[in-house]
Amino acid sequence: MPSTTGPMLETYPKSINLDRAKLAAAVDALNDCAQACTACADACLSEDMVSELTKCIRTNLDCADICATTARVLSRHTGYDATISRTLLEACATACRSCGDECAAHADKHEHCRICAEACRACEQGCRDLLATIS
Amino acid sequence: MPSTTGPMLETYPKSINLDRAKLAAAVDALNDCAQACTACADACLSEDMVSELTKCIRTNLDCADICATTARVLSRHTGYDATISRTLLEACATACRSCGDECAAHADKHEHCRICAEACRACEQGCRDLLATIS
Amino acid sequence: MPSTTGPMLETYPKSINLDRAKLAAAVDALNDCAQACTACADACLSEDMVSELTKCIRTNLDCADICATTARVLSRHTGYDATISRTLLEACATACRSCGDECAAHADKHEHCRICAEACRACEQGCRDLLATIS
Amino acid sequence: MPSTTGPMLETYPKSINLDRAKLAAAVDALNDCAQACTACADACLSEDMVSELTKCIRTNLDCADICATTARVLSRHTGYDATISRTLLEACATACRSCGDECAAHADKHEHCRICAEACRACEQGCRDLLATIS
Q1: Looking at beta carbons, which residues of chain C come within 8 Å of A45?
Q2: Are D96 and D121 in contact (CB under 8 A)?
Q3: Would the pLDDT of A1 be above 70?
Q4: Cα B131 to Cα A72: distance, rounded to the nearest angstrom
Q5: Which among D40, D62, D96 is positioned nearest to A73, based on CA atoms?
Q6: Helices within chain A (DSSP H only)
């Protein structure tokens, strides 16, 4: 099922101040990362070694919340405020970096951490690619 | 970009009490509907006839919040509680029905409402398909 | 710091279809329960016996998400749709019941679970009191 | 009803890296601001002059999402990561500043904007007070 992010962007009735392709890519990466982090936190919670994964769970929960909120803010174009988008994208890229590093440290033992680390890396890149166009 | 929902489901370390294919389909439809509703609310806000779209905006906001929360709850399998999943899926299907009806009423005038109505219909169906397996 | 929920309700420019006192009480209880559940999940995660608290953490996360979304939906009055409010309140009361029961089972060992159980009970009651006025 | 934020902080089983009084004050201000912004967006939507309030509605929605997420992240202490807290607090203070300015511009005409502007100012201050302790 292809995402509706791109098609919905095309229907926005006024002008959009951001590169539409990079914007759609960032929103899709954010939603995918939020989903992966929510699932990874829960999978960690069911591992026998959960006591060694508590930092991973916490960072997953933060990253899921921040990515979901960033996707929402980037999906709004009415009354655009570049300073909000920029600072939030910076916070989100920071969270994705931390969560990607934490998950990567468990990637050899837990496949859910490996997949989640990839989603975090892709999301961090999507945020930075978009940030580079805001200046 | 294919969703990570299915691959992440495969990595869950314990058993899952729901049909995995229907579960992954529902989660993807929920995330897609949440995204479409957030974007539709914002597009409505930028239409010249915004005063005729206030109910649509409100229902979009409700549907986005409820779908996002339902996707999260369904992405957790640890300590599964069927009564929470069932009542939440019922509330979510209700919200998707209302939002789909409201958006459909504006579909001939606004392409974002047409696409969003489709996402709501698909999400309602995904919720009901999963609900049918829980009882 | 008194909540702004009641004062904001007074400023809504159109009529509201629900009992304002019960509505404000429910929204405050929902926000308080969401906060308690988020904090309880994290406190459980830092307990040495975290492996015995995984169901509690999961139910806390669900309850926090559902309460936060219910508070948002109840804070919107434009284009009111009773069927969404009713089914969502039922799902939320169900989640609060489950989470209150789970936290109560750990209340003698963990003070955060005791306080959280109380917040869940109060929230379930606030939801049911409001539900009784909708039907 | 007093907030459970402070009492829950006291029950956290490990050490907390932040000033507890400033932390509890920030979390309460964030939750209050999120609630005020959600209600203000909806009240604006019901004003006859909604077409002049679209930027206010949008900024309210952003601010509500960002404050709610920041409250959650600050309510977690397990596996604390100062870089996430700091960048998110900066983004949140930015959003509160923008939303407070926008609401203040309508405060003489709409009481909900006046109350919401105050909640945004208090929240921005709470974020900056806490930020000053993180360094």
Answers
A1: 54, 57-58
A2: yes
A3: no
A4: 27
A5: D62
A6: 5-10, 20-45, 54-74, 82-104, 111-134
| Chain B touched by A15 (CB under 8 Å) | no
Which subunits sit against B, judged by 3+ Cβ pairs under 8 A?
A, C, D
Q: Do C58 and A51 touch (CB under 8 A)?
A: no
Structure tokens at A7: 């098609």
Q: Which residues from chain B sit within 8 angstroms of residue C90, using beta carbons?
A: 87, 90-91
Q: Is the pTM of this model over 0.90?
A: yes
* CA–CA dist D120, D118 (Å, integer): 5
Q: Which of B78, A94, A71, B37 is nearest to C45 (CA)?
A: B78
Task: Show which subunits contact C, needing at least 3 CB pairs below 8 angstroms.
Answer: A, B, D
Confidence of residue B1 (pLDDT cuts 50, 70, 90): low
The answer to whether C84 contacts chain B (CB < 8 Å) is yes
Predicted local confidence at residue D24, as pLDDT: 98
CA distance C42 to D78: 6
DSSP codes of every residue in A54-80: HHHHHHHHHHHHHHHHHHHHHT--TT-
> In Å, what is the CA distance from D112 to each residue of A72, C19, D43?
23, 19, 7
pLDDT in tens, chain D (135 residues): 679 999 999 999 999 989 999 999 999 999 999 999 999 999 999 999 999 999 999 999 999 999 999 999 999 999 999 999 999 999 999 999 999 999 999 999 999 999 999 999 999 999 999 999 997
- Rounded to the nearest 5 percent, the helix, strand and coil shares of chain D are 75, 0, 25
Query: Residue D11: which of C27, C43, C68 has the nearest Cβ?
Result: C43
CA distance B58 to chain D (A): 8
Residue in chain B closest to A76 (alpha carbons) equals B42
B134 touches chain C (CB under 8 A): no
Q: How far apart are alpha carbons B82 and B134 in whole angstroms?
A: 7
B 36-55 residues inside an 8 A Cβ radius of D: 41-42, 45-46, 48, 50-51, 54
Does the pLDDT value for residue B79 go beyond 80?
Answer: yes
